Amino acid sequence: MAASAAESVDSRPLLTLLSDVGLLSKERGRALTDKLNRFFEAVRAPSKKTDEAFWTAFQQEFGFATVAPSERVTPMNAANLCPEPTTLIESLNELRLEYNLNVSQQMRTAQGERVLQLERTRKSLAFGLSLRDPTELAIVRNATEANNAINCGFRGWSADGNDTVVMWAENHPTNREAWKMRAEWPGGPTPFEVEEVSFPTNAPEADIAAAFINRITERTRFVTYTETANSNGFRMPESVMRAIWDHVKTNRPDCHVHIDGTMAWGARPLNLANAYCHSLVSSAHKWFLGPKETGILFMRNEKARNFMPSIFGYDYRIVIVPYRELPENALRFELIGQRDDVNIIALDLTQKMWTVLQPRRPYERIAQLAQHLMSRLQQTGSRWKLVTPSDPARSWGVVRVEAPKEHREKTLYEYVPARFEKQVHVQEVLACACGRGVVTAPPPARVVDRGEYGPGFLPT
Predict the structure, then answer these.
(1) Could you tell me the pTM of the whole model?
(2) Residue 400: is its pLDDT beyond 50?
(3) What is the SS3 assignment for 265?
(4) Which of 283, 248, 278, 245 lies closest to 262, judged by CA?
């Protein structure tokens, strides 16, 4: 990735193509090219070493950091919704105005530039995810839609209703309650049984793997878990994921392994070519710092034909294919009609930012901040009891502390601004109101977001 960074982050080819077909005026195209390339160069910052000064400078690329301290609202909930870099938002707003001047269908059919741009974006994201075949990657709206495409679309159930789905009890509701709804809905598809797996977060890795594997039978059609749980911050150890994957591949080839990787994309390196699963989903507007209402659904080609799309409409070429000719890959999950073309470009530009950011090892920054937070919380004694394991092999950027429901509004949520008002520069990430989130903020700051999880690599 580093070898091709200089070529891949230049926005000139992308914007020149838009200008050539009349989707962007040449004057504005040149101005946007200069603006974006300055941004990418500021992120690359070849003369700066990776230290607090670098991360402080990088933080200034986000709007919240440039607001006067007395009015600043610091984001606390990056794993739910993360801010986008100001330059990217401003550029996209300009592009949106330009696109509004030419909404002709020709641009979105056959070899129209908008169609070509989607394919370029898909290839760019696939490259960033180490994926060899871009057609195994669908660009969808968010992880919720992608998770439901999995639990709603499968059509390989046995007629007797005795199939099972093995899932982690800490799965996000879109990958837990949605399965239960499909299994129990009166008059729905062929019923199946849901079996939940629970285990202590300090259990040996072999025991965790066994908790899943021992429930997998010849009737198991799915094994599904969340890579990092929003409920307790526990990250599934790699040895567990590998053990489940190896067992299924060897013993249960008809079983599908699905991972909710919402807390992974942008927070951890992802190599989908060697992923321990048949499918994985994530949202771009979380740790990836991308545009809202964009996400990905990765699925291996040999499994795609087992799923009926939950939405059947136009593809990106504004063509409705005969249902018997659905794509035999992840693209069958993109038949959702009109798309936001500018957001597709935003994904490409965000991936370019990550390309130049990679040498800074941003994933390590996230882990360091989370570890620092947990260490400082433990120094308070019994005041804040950690729910998230402190073992870095079992956690990453999500940190949760115990907060009784009846007193949550008077716990850590009030503790954070109180500390800031006293001008105590803690230089740490702090958990928020409900005991599930983390925040980075310089004092003083108004903390208003009662989110669930924490920041990426944004510094204090």
Answers:
(1) 0.88
(2) yes
(3) strand
(4) 283
